[in-house]
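The protein record passed on below.

***
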Amino acid sequence: MSDIHTFLKEHASGDLVAWSAQQEAAERFNLTLAQIEAAILESGLLPARYQRNRQTVSTAGQLQLFRSRVAVIGCGGLGGYVIEELARLGVGQIVAIDPDRFEEHNLNRQLLSSPAALGEAKVTAAARRVGEINPAVQLTPVEKAFAADNGRELLAGARVVVDALDSIAVRLELADTCSAMGIPLVHGAIGGWYGHLATQLPGDDTLRQIYRSWSSGKGIEQQYGNPSFTPAVVASLQVAEVCKLLLGQGELLTGRQLTIDLLTMEIHEIQLRKADRSPA
C-alpha cells in the first residue's frame, strides 16, 4: 500500500487528487475505485470531486462518510433524490431497497425514472445512476419489500436508515425495527405542496407519536399526489440529517417534527418531546 500512497501524493495537486489520477491508480495497482478513494482519504488527501465540500466537511469527515453504510427504504420520489445526494456527498455504501418497477405516473417527480426506464426495477436504475455519478460509491440494490420479518437482514450493518416509503403501516414497522436494532431513522413524508420530516433515535417512539391518530390507508399522498419539487425539498433535508448523524455534528431534528408548506412557504416545528439534540 505504500506504493499506492506514494503514487497518490506524487499525482496530487496540493491535497487534491483528480479523477483521472484516481482511475490511473486503480488500473495500475489493480484495485477498485472504492479502494483507491479510501487510500486517498487515508493519506490525508481529498478526491477533487469533494473540494467544494471542504468548508462544510473536513477531509477526516469525508473519510468517515466514505466508511459509512446507509440504507434507503424506497427508491421513488424521496428515495431517488436521497440516493443521488448521498452518492454525491460521498457516502461509501448505500443499500437501496424497493420491490417496485417504474410506471408512467412516476415520470413527473422520480429522479431515477425516464421513459427508457419504464418497467425497469427502481433499484437497478439506482445502481446505474450511482455508477454514473460516483463510481467509487458502492450501491447494493435489493429488489424486495421491507417487512418486519426481513427487516433485520435488510438493515444489517447500516449506520443510518432513511425512510422514503409511501405506506404508513410499513413505516411503523421500519421504525420499530430500527429502534430494536439501535439504528437512527430519518423519516420523511410528502403529499402535494406539503411535507414533513423527523429523526428517530434508538429508544424513541417518534413515528408512533407522529402517526398516533392513523388507523388505515397510505396517507395524504394518495389524496394530493406529488409534483416534482416537494420530494426534492424533503429529501434534501433528510440527507442533511443523515450527514449530521454520520459526522456527529450539528443539531438533530429529534423530539420534534418539521412541517413544510410550499404553497405558503411556511415551515413549522412541532415539539414531540424533550430531547438531547446532539448527534449520537
